[in-house]
What we know:
Layout: E1 2-3, E2 12-17, H1 34-48, E3 52-60, E4 63-71, E5 74-83, H2 97-113, E6 120-129, E7 134-142
Parallel strand pairs: 5-6
Antiparallel strand pairs: 1-2, 2-7, 3-4, 4-5, 6-7
Amino acid sequence: MKLWKFRDKKPTRLLTHEPAWGREASAEADGRPPAKKGEDLAAEFLKKVGYKILVRNYRNPLGEIDIVAKEEDVIVFVEVKTRRVKKFGLAKEAVHSQKQKKLIRLAQAYLKQHHLTKLRARFDVVAIQLDDNRIEVIKNAFDIPC
Length: 146
């Protein structure tokens, strides 16, 4: 496992990890769709590196946030992107500006609903590439536009 330096405001690769699930343990082999398998792997991995998982699959009429977690005194909204193969692009490339806007609205609703608006919050992306057996956590993947 390789740890990278943390920076507060710029998107930062937190770490890249090659998990031990192996190629033979593909999403199809265990009956779970790739997205579900990715979310399970991401939650497990985030716990190992110090995140406290608050909610998985938070839903409201606006949509869904894959994972809401807490790291120290920061609420972290995590978008998990899983790809079986690179043919359709890297997992981390799938969080485009429209998706970011949607996640921001969902995060604001979550913070308001749970009376957490005074806490700091950030958006992380967990990119899982199943064909390479890689998990990448990108801290502060994007900011709320002013």
